[in-house]
Amino acid sequence: MQKRTAGIHHITAIVGNPQENVDFYAGVLGLRLVKKTVNFDDPGTYHLYFGNEAGSPGTIMTFFPWHNAHSGKRGSGQVGVTSFVVPEGALPFWEERLSTFQIAYEKITRFGEESLQFMDPHGLHLELAARKNGPVSKWTFGKVTPDVAIKGFGGAILLSADPESTMELLVNGMGLEKVETEGDFTRFKSTDDLGNIIDVKQSALPEGSMGVGTVHHIAWRAQDFEDHESWRQHIGSKGYGVTKIVDRQYFNAIYFREKGGILFEIATDPPGFTKDESAETMGENLLLPPWLEEKRALIEANLLPAEVRLLEEDL
Q1: CATH (domain of 161)
Q2: What total of structural domains would you count in the chain?
Q3: 297 in a domain, yes or no?
Q4: What integer pLDDT is reported at residue 65 of this predicted model?
Q5: Is residue 59 within 8 Å of residue 272, measured between CB atoms?
Q6: What is the DSSP letter of 288?
Q7: What is the pLDDT averaged over residues 70-79?
Q8: I want to staple 134 with a disulfide (CB 3.0 to 4.6 A). Which of 84, 125, 161, 194 is the partner?
Q9: What is the DSSP-derived secondary structure letter of residue 310?
Q10: Which residue has the higher pLDDT, 195 or 1?
Q11: Is 29 exposed, middle or buried (CB count within 10 Å of its CB: 0-12, 13-18, 19+)?
């Protein structure tokens, strides 16, 4: 039986100063900081998670802030644009809000849908689209209220060095449905209402390089731990080298690089972000996995401050 992912679980990117990152995604975009932890593979670096009020799969944008690191180059082998979705009728609010914060944006139309494209402070390419489907976020921050708040991911634009192979994997490996082709883009759709629209650019760009302002990987959803092991076997049977299952505390993960050069992850929906703190206090304190707790003092001494704060424009 063909396996089908529900859609995007999370997208992880590399950024610069952590306070600038928090100010933009929490302060400007109004997302909730649902988890403040460290990169388990590099504990000297934060791993910050933003999403809806619960950090639900399909809403989670995560970041490794590399302060003073070199900038990356956007290109093939990467997620080129991360798309967020807001409720119908909310784009005028976001036009005004982006202008208030002096963030330049461009109105574009793709597959008959208007969106606002802009960049975050560290060069990540983002867009906002308005759609009816998908539950609204219940989170309010500043002037961003649930009637206009980001619901979660709309999807992503993939920049592949081998678009045909990437598209073949999306259909026959990940179980997405090919929708249509328009100009230089082919659109695919998964089954969930969030994180379900993937556009692949047909023309390959020069190869990208990892650094600040680029996406590190895109993660797809596995329903549970049993489904996750099934995904590992399934992807391996397609000839891809898949990692062992890695415990990321809030989900289990496997990784593989598809033929177009993009790093794919498949992550479990459970256990979620309330594993080690309450739903009410998520994101307020630095959480460390048990094997790093004894090094807390050293880790905290090496991390720059990063706190959610109301920005002047919202006062």
Answers
A1: 3.10.180.10
A2: 1
A3: yes
A4: 97
A5: no
A6: -
A7: 97
A8: 194
A9: -
A10: 195
A11: buried
The answer to whether the Cα torsion of 87, 91, 97, 102 is positive or negative is: positive
Integer Cα distance of 65 and 110 in angstroms: 31
Q: Cα–Cα distance between 47 and 139 in angstroms, integer?
A: 21
**pLDDT tens track for 152-192:** 999 999 999 999 999 999 999 999 999 999 999 999 999 99
> Which phi-psi region, left, alpha or beta, contains residue 302 (left: φ > 0; alpha: ψ -120 to 50)?
alpha
For residue 42, give its domain range.
Answer: 8-314
Pull the structure tokens for residue 161: 């060095």
Phi (first) and psi of residue 212, to 5 degrees: -60, 135
Q: Are 215 and 263 in contact (CB under 8 A)?
A: no
Could you tell me which of 3, 2, 4, 10 has the C-alpha nearest to residue 265?
10
Confidence of residue 91 (pLDDT cuts 50, 70, 90): very high
For residue 152, tell me if it sits in a domain. Answer: yes
pLDDT in the model for residue 2:
86
Residue 126 belongs to some domain of the structure: yes
Among the residues of the chain, which ranges form H helices?
18-22, 91-100, 163-172, 225-237, 296-302
Amino acid occupying residue 161: A
Q: Where are the alpha helices (DSSP H) in 267-313?
A: 296-302
Judge contact between 253 and 207, C-beta under 8 A.
Answer: no
Q: Would 280 be classed as within a structural domain?
A: yes
Report which of 151, 258, 134 is spatially closest to residue 200, judged by C-alpha positions.
258
Taking Cα atoms as reference points, which of 248, 263, 249 lies closest to residue 210?
263
For residue 53, give the amino acid letter.
Answer: E
155 DSSP 8-state letter: E
